[in-house]
Design goal:
heterodimer, A: mainly alpha, two-stranded antiparallel ribbon, 2 strands, disordered N terminus, B: seven-stranded antiparallel sheet
Amino acid sequence: MSESVSSLMAPPSTWEEFTEGLWKRNPVFVMVLGMCPTLAVTVTAMNSLSMGIATTFVLAASCFLVSLMRKMIPKEVRIATYIVIIATFVTVTDYAIQAISLDLYEALGAYIQLIVANCLVLGRAEAHAARTPPVEATMNAIGMGLGFTLSLVMIGGVREILGAGAFFGIPLFGEHFQPWVVMVLPPGGFFVMAGWLLLFSILRRRSQMKADAASVEAADALKTSGACHGA
Amino acid sequence: MSAPDTTSQPQETDALAHATPTFTLLRALSVVSAVCGLIIVASYLLTLDRAKDNRRLASERAVVKVLPNAKIVKPFLALANGDIVPAGEGDPPSGAIRFYAAYDEKGRLDGIAAEGAAKGYADIVRVMFGYRKDCQCIVGIGVVSMRETPGIGDKILTDKDFLANFNALDVRLNDELTALANEVKVVKHGTKTEKWQIDAISGTTITSRAVGKGINEAAQVLLPRLVPKLDRLEKP
């Protein structure tokens, strides 16, 4: 929706493209895209960070190539070509992680290959990169990817702290800490995700209410001043 | 969507008249496939050596965990016809079992390590076990991969009583050298009476059983092929 609205207004600057996904339209907490890896691999902060970086790379490289080829790709075959492009970079990532660390590869398991089905990647290629020049498309994709990484680490960090008493593998609470095992089990992903969403919606409502109150006050002030003038 | 029908009608016919020619579609798909193919092949070739080294190092690390004296580790295949050959590149022939011969610093055969796998609670549990011929027993295990419940299934890594089962787990062959003399069996916690039994962890029975089953299945096939030819592996 806002895509078509923003295209009517002045085109966003490269910096705006970059920051869009970081927070304002965060892929996980605002657009709620790519839930499969978000819930499945965020057992530790390290896994979350690696998954986020892998997705960011796939997203940025795919969006760059899609944007570069956007005038050459007829709309009839666009989904097929986007999926081929995304699958290519997922394969590259898969090989790269095998070369970097086998432990990491085992820990992330099938979820690396499943980046190909992450709706965030195809969604951004289709909704943004296909109608934006390469630099802007890539910047936007990197921003979205970093926003995705940030949210994954926020979920994974909480799960690791509560479920294993550690953060990035560094023990925090000493030996007597009794870990909440449920946090590293699948339900923990839903609990932490829900917790963050709840927190953000409370904050949003607070600032909304403040803004409303401010505007009502301003209107009151205007009214009274108007009344004074009238008198 | 909200546009009235009168305007959408001409647009549709317009789209049909300006449909992309077949050749353009084919060209687009071919170019994209060619570019993507090049990227994939290039990255495969670039990462191949590193990935192979990583795999070798990982299996060597797993072997050293179960046979701590190992200095040199060599992979072999026990073929279905009973032959022992050094493991080469690529997929092993069907029916072949991969194992590692571990040599100590003086170059003497220290022991054999092999992998067993069986279904656990969540997924396949893959364990590496070390075998020494002087006691004809398993002298240590390590987990290669598992997805068992943290805090429950992963006790097989830490539970001292459970790991003590594998200080000398009896896997001697029968007189005909065709199978294990006694099947490796997982028994209920506290009821172990024989050297070939594994005392399960109470509350972690399914994962304990998977470990026992994986070892038993692998040893039943591998050891009858391997033991008669162990002399051939004496020197690295």
